[in-house]
Amino acid sequence: MAFNPPPPSIYSSNMHIPPDVPVFSGSNVSLQNGMNGSLPNDGNQAQNYSRNDYSSNEQSAFAVQQATADFQRMKLNVDSTFSSTQQHPPPPIPTVVSPNVGYPSNFNYDGTTATASFLSAPMVSVLPPQPDAPAAPPVMNSAATGPSSQMLRSGFPSNFANYGPPSAGFAPPAANHPSTPIMHPVNVIPEDRVSMSQQSEELMSSTMDGKFNSPLQPPLVFHGANMPLAAQSNYNASSIPLPPMSSQPSSMPPMCPTDFPSMQRLPMRQSTTTLPPPPQPSGFSGVPTQSPFSPPSDFSKNAVPGAPPIGCSMNQYPPMPSAPMPGQNFSHGTSSPFPPTDGQTGAYLPGGLPPQPQMPANSQPKRLDPNLMPSAIQVFEDDRKTKAGLFQTGVDHAELPPLCTTEFYAEDQGNSNPKFIRSTMYSVPVSNDLLKNSALPLAFCVTPLAKLCPEENPLPVVNFGDLGPVRCHRCKAYMCPFMVFFDGGRRFRCPFCNTSTDVANEYFSHLDHASRRIDMMERPELHLGSYEFVATKEYCKDQLFPNPPAYVFVLDVSYNAIRNGLVNTFCQNIKLLLQNLPKEHGKDCMIEVAFITYDQGVHFYDLKNGSGSPKMMVVNDVQEMFVPMGKGLFVKPSVASQAIDQLMEQIWSLFGENRITEVILGPALQAGVEALKAHNRSGKIFLFHTTLPTFEAPGKLKNREDRRLLGTDKEKTILTSQSDFYAKLSEECRSVGCGVDLFLFPNSFIDVATVGEICRLTGSQMYKYPYFEANKDGDRFLADLKHAIERPVVFDAIMRLRTSTGLRPVEFYGNIAMNNRTDIEMATVDSDKCVTIEVKHDDKLEGGNAYFQVAVLFTSVSGERRLRIHNLALSVAMDYAAMYRSADVLTILNYLAKFAERHQMQKTPKEVRESLTSRVAQILATYRQYCSPNSSLGQLVLPELLKILPLLVNSLLKSDAFSGGSELTVDDRAWLMQLLPSMSPLDSVLYFYPRLTPLVKLELLNESPPAVRCSYENLLPDEAYLLDNGVLMFLWIGQSVPTQWIQDVFGVPTFAQINTDKNQLIEKDNPTSRSLRCWIEELQAGRQRRAKIYIIKQGEKLEPWMKKFLVEDRNDNCPSYVDYLCYIHKEIRSYIS
């Protein structure tokens, strides 16, 4: 393959010391294998050795008079060194180190090693969680008991790069250099504690082989004690960058160490190089508060690229106070995070750390490679390799399913298929305290009509006749596999309310020796997790069975719709699309259709006219809409095929020369609703609209676009509805059981935030085609319309989640409406819609299982009233370890996205970002505190199943739905926000972390091409890549792509001749072109919307736009993945402290 191979796993066992690691002669400093001691590895005790384990020479280690002598008696603990070719320094990952065993390491401003002899690179090891261990804080000296600085809550604090250990953990700056260093401590081990026994080496080898005795998932451990802070020989206050979270753009480079070494411990080797003498310290005062992201105005020729101008005053930066994590009442000290100096010369005072030796002139900078950070691509691939194929849902309680990115088919064993319902965790915490302290959400992503693969059986339909569905007489839960029968089968106990109910005679069956009904396997509701019941009249409106549903097509025929080709495209293709109307398996299609057109009036068509030609009736009084005709409005396409053909020709002939530009919208929607109401039908309206409705009529809107407000605290004024007309109309739609799919074709502002209310509150979807041209966008529009027409759908739906005693649903997210606190109303529900429900505790749970049941009452496409039931039993977690090892990170991402989207309309963008970041930090801090209490505070401990959570949340915050500013239109931003509530976990992970695949040798592969991490560093100039986020696709072409590939795909001989204006792939009859088009079609198959493809050449003007979707890189006002991970580590330390 011509593309980059995946980066080496952090769990690989072939790590070695790079040849460019400096070795110092004539010194007592040795490179040890990342161990400060030796402990037995019993599976629960981590192979992780704290610097605080050593107490010898504690009283003399920090004495300034003996600093040099002490250092000569120490061994330097090094796991590996940093290596990378990045151009910008990422932010540091800090440490708290006991000052009696730590000496500072010296680093350049840009994150490179200034003195390699003092560098202790980060160790990465697997640390089994310890569920039974007490939550004792790590051993620290008094100077390390408080956070180093206040967390300024502005997305990222203004002193983001200054975090680090408390005052004893930093060294003062050296003199006569453009910038002053922030020193970083390393592990320095007393000489008499360094030597390792053979047993220790064997234990290390066991760790390298990945052998663990603990049954828990091993977490990823980042030893932050060895991760350098940005530093130089001198300090300039504004030289410390911080990753911004404000709306202001940044010109500063990223700033974290770039190479992240593997967890394997390196063999010891003796240093042979004499250490240079320490430099004279220089003065330092305070913590910088000036924003470092404004472009520097001047540089000296020796200044580090990206550093601020020389000569800034140091005294203008006051020290930063401390602040607890949100929701915590911890008291912190206010000590400076820097070692004490005399305030003038910068000399060390007692209790400080000795200065660093200067960086040799010929030393080679080392960086931390972001590709060695936890990778979403690797997590998805590992899950696919281990869990693809058959998945058994579990008998007693649900098993942790494969990730939603993995293709699998489920065997229903009594718990519902994960495609229908997913939980954020598969062990429910026993109490609210456990849930609250962890900050993990307990939520369920429910896709009631999710599509099943061919290997899975369709849901059985159970008909009890006049008896109706069997239910608990108290909580009204429906019969399920978790009901317990007793008293010879005459009674059953409900698992949701623990109440007993008598069994009707018609439903009675004897029990076997195990107290199970003898007909259990014959009744789907007794052994399956998902099934359907046929409802009786008691479940119908007015005690009457419903009529079959209908579809109403409402078409804009104004001048704009004629000019851009919308009307012509619709009329030529609608008859073909109507052949795919949804129907029940084995039954004929029962759906009838009607057609309405509008401009400044509304036009109805009688398709059952006896004369053969459709008859048009016009309503010009749009203030009070009514339907002027009777039964001829709705017809079956199979019966009225000829009439539909004639109508399409008539529409074009009547309106082909239309010059009306001002149009209505509200009355057209009312016409569709009134048509369904008049015929007593539920159904769906497909409305096609082109311009802002400015004509004097109900639903009239005004132009209020102001891009400058996006990204500011005032953005909610233009992202919320300017009128309540469409929200009130949605209530009428729900009463009829009518959803509205909007297809918008704007050339200017159309106020998506307002007109989209009709979709959001009826369980429907909005499609948007700005600057629509039929010859370019017609195929995409028709593909979307085809999918919207033929996908599985139900109407007039009500959904409720029932839970075990002690739990209750509290928040509901989706394209839904709520008239009370329990029932979710949706005019329509289709196979793409997902509803997320958050659950909280009312009381402490008992041991065993917690039970959940989703019931959806609906009208099917055949007009039958039914109930669809999904059941789930989850084990009860008694400790934090059980919670973290049963978490589903992609379902958590889905919940956090919907949570943040709702709060965007209630809080400022900064507050939303702070809330998400703080929550992620608390989730990981709780794991570190309770599941890995013996690890050093300087270690970033990530649970195995949540190790990519920081990556995904940072990607979420970078998305245009949350961070889009004035570069977007107001309509684009509002549309993206309206996509989020109905997204399934698979849709959301694809949108926030796009799929990037190489293409040049695609035709040589027998399977899907391997994905590449979303970073510009991974794009090779001799390769082409496809970036796909489910909404947009980018075909990126490197400058050195083989000319034969260019010829095969684009039909031109050179890179310069590729035409990127049309954004179209020409169909060529060769394997390269066919494989590329087939791959794109495979990605788009089954999606609810067809992504628009943009062709981007390397180095051209549109490339920066595409780079925004490379979410692991730093862009505009958002930090890189490494930057964000470092900040999360700082937040974790502050929370634990």
TrEMBL record:
Residues 287-300 have a biased composition (Polar residues). It is a peripheral membrane protein. Its main location: membrane. Residues 888-989 form the Sec23/Sec24 helical domain. Residues 546-787 form the Sec23/Sec24 trunk domain. Residues 469-507 form the Zinc finger Sec23/Sec24-type domain. The keyword Transport applies. Residues 28-52, 269-308, 320-365 are annotated as: Disordered. Pfam families: Gelsolin, Sec23_BS, Sec23_helical, Sec23_trunk, zf-Sec23_Sec24. GO terms for biological process: COPII-coated vesicle cargo loading; intracellular protein transport. Belongs to the SEC23/SEC24 family. SEC24 subfamily. This is Protein transport protein Sec24C.
